[in-house]
Design goal:
binds zinc ion; 4-stranded mixed β-sheet; 12% strand; DUF6647 domain-containing protein; Collagenase (Catalytic Domain); alpha/beta; globular; single chain; DUF6647; 7 helices; 43% helix; 187 residues
Length: 187
């Protein structure tokens, strides 16, 4: 049996425009990642906008739980990749990190090349808001593996895409979530 280290950010590799983008949560008990550098951005205050309000409203409606207060910021690709695939772990896969939730600072970092006008970009915010909710409700302490948290986040992200008519993307993300939710390689 393969005994893989649980990873938060696992991606299928095709089609590139969806699954080469991974969305993650940091600082789970399994992740030896210090989230502190996430603060060292210096990019000013938190983003605001109708698109953020829309994503929050969707998550609240979909899950029946209000989305917690978080700070949404943009971050450069190198920074996101560095947070999610630290050199020390040697696990960079050529995947682009679309978004990450940093529980320690309650920040959602979105890749700065995402266009918030697009449903796909907003869906990553939806995904990370689900992670924020999971931490607010301490669901991360009860999850049987990191993938279980990812499965819920991908599921809600897929629902969002479906409501926007992006059925193919929704399907792929749902499959991705199902794979991760299996907890097959947890101890
Ligand atoms: Zn995730």
């Amino acid at each position: 049996m393969r005994k893989a280290r649980p990873r938060q950010c696992q991606g299928l590799h095709k089609p590139a425009h969806v699954t080469a983008m991974v969305a993650c949560v940091l600082a789970l008990p399994w992740a030896a990642i210090d989230p502190a550098p996430a603060r060292a951005d210096g990019s000013g205050g938190c983003l605001e906008g109708d698109w953020i309000a829309e994503a929050r409203a969707f998550v609240a409606e979909e899950t029946g739980i209000p989305a917690p207060e978080v700070c949404v910021r943009l971050a450069g690709k190198e920074r996101l990749d560095g947070l999610v695939f630290p050199v020390a772990l040697g696990e960079s896969h050529g995947e682009a990190v679309a978004a990450v939730y940093v529980p320690a600072t309650r920040e959602i970092l979105l890749a700065d090349d995402l266009d918030p006008g697009t449903p796909l970009a907003r869906s990553y915010l939806v995904h990370e808001l689900v992670h924020a909710q999971q931490f607010a409700s301490r669901a991360h302490e009860r999850a049987s593996c990191p993938g279980a948290l990812e499965a819920a986040a991908y599921d809600t992200q897929a629902s969002y895409l479906r409501t926007k008519g992006l059925r193919e993307e929704a399907f792929l993300l749902q499959v991705l979530g199902m794979f991760q939710g299996a907890c097959g390689d947890s101890d």
